[in-house]
Write a structure and sequence with these properties.
This protein has 10 helices and 14 strands. By secondary structure, the protein is an alpha/beta fold. It has a single domain (about 20-285), classed as Carbamate kinase (3-Layer(aba) Sandwich), CATH 3.40.1160.10. Strand 3 (about 85) and strand 4 (about 90) form a beta hairpin. It is globular. It starts with 6 loop residues before the first helix and ends in a 13-residue tail after the last strand.
């Protein structure tokens, strides 16, 4: 049943958000977007609404997106079988052309158009534009899957200074003209690090880091980079969470203030994280523990 709020209740919600609006005004927040939140059309609309709202209240939002499911679907329709090694897509020359077409073309421009429809001003670029993301071969077995060697962040800062929401597709390039498929989490961490972002939000298909992967009630709301190393040794961080948490730790070491792993399938989870006391998901932070590094105090 739909819940209706009185004008007084709406005003109260806005008033309670004021400290957070003040805190994040003019700050950079990077959102890494992909997975089921991108496939579900209703959730996609809500993510774009969250990003536009943050932009309208003065947050400098950068959207970094992948598109694995749509790449796989396009390959299937073109009669090409997807292959993976250690969770990474094997990308031969034909596949990297498909990746470029889907990421820098269809997905990127669709997201830009949605943001504009919601009232934002967005500009879509790929990691190849302005040599934003320079890369080299990560593993010969993977073909054109790239390991980031350098981030030229000026194209992004130029767009932010002009008042745009940069929408970045995760492609890279090298000095020989090769195009590379870049892991979305890695690209987002490097871009956020180069920007010295206040926060990196990684939308995922899970609530966050769980002490018991089968029990959502065991969510770990906060951990430091030191905690992350310990939890990996204990086996709490395992499987597909290992590279995701490693990206979070790398982002912190590159200068990002906080990194959040959260469930992108929850409606308006971005706003809950930025504009409420409790936040959402798991926060990864530096070793120093204080109010500025942790969740906002009540």
């Amino acid at each position: 049943m739909e819940k209706f709020f009185s004008n007084a209740e709406r005003a109260q919600v806005l008033t309670e958000a004021l400290p957070y609006i003040r805190r994040y005004n003019g700050k950079i927040v990077v959102v890494k977007y992909g997975g089921n939140a991108m496939v579900n059309e209703q959730l996609k609309q809500q993510v774009m609404e969250d990003i536009t709202l943050l932009w309208l209240i003065g947050v400098k939002v950068v959207l970094v997106h992948g598109g694995g499911p749509e790449i796989s679907d396009t390959m299937k329709r073109l009669g090409k079988q997807a292959a993976f090694v250690d969770g990474l897509r094997v990308t031969d020359r034909e596949t990297v052309d498909i990746v470029q077409m889907v990421l820098a073309g269809k997905i990127n421009k669709t997201l830009v158009n949605l943001l504009e429809m919601k009232g934002g001003h967005a500009m879509g670029i790929s990691g190849m534009d302005g040599r934003l993301i320079e890369a080299k071969v990560k593993d010969e077995r993977l073909g054109y899957v790239g390991e980031i060697t350098h981030v030229n962040i000026k194209p992004v800062t130029d767009l932010l200074e002009k008042g745009y929401i940069p929408v970045i597709s995760t492609l890279g390039c090298d000095r020989d003209g090769n195009t590379y498929n870049i892991n979305g989490d890695t690209a987002a961490a490097c871009v956020a690090g180069a920007l010295g972002a206040e926060r990196l939000i990684m939308l995922s298909d899970i609530p966050g880091l769980l002490r018991d992967k089968d029990d959502p009630s065991t969510l770990i709301p906060e951990l430091t980079v030191l905690d992350a190393a310990r939890l990996r040794q204990e086996g709490v961080i395992s499987g597909g969470m290992i590279p995701k948490v490693e990206c979070c730790v790398d982002a912190i070491r590159m200068g990002v203030k906080k990194v959040i792993i959260m469930d992108g399938r929850v409606p308006h989870s971005i706003l809950m994280e930025i504009l409420t006391d409790e936040g959402a998901g798991t926060m990864v932070k530096g070793a120093e523990i204080d109010d500025e590094q942790g969740r906002m105090p009540s």
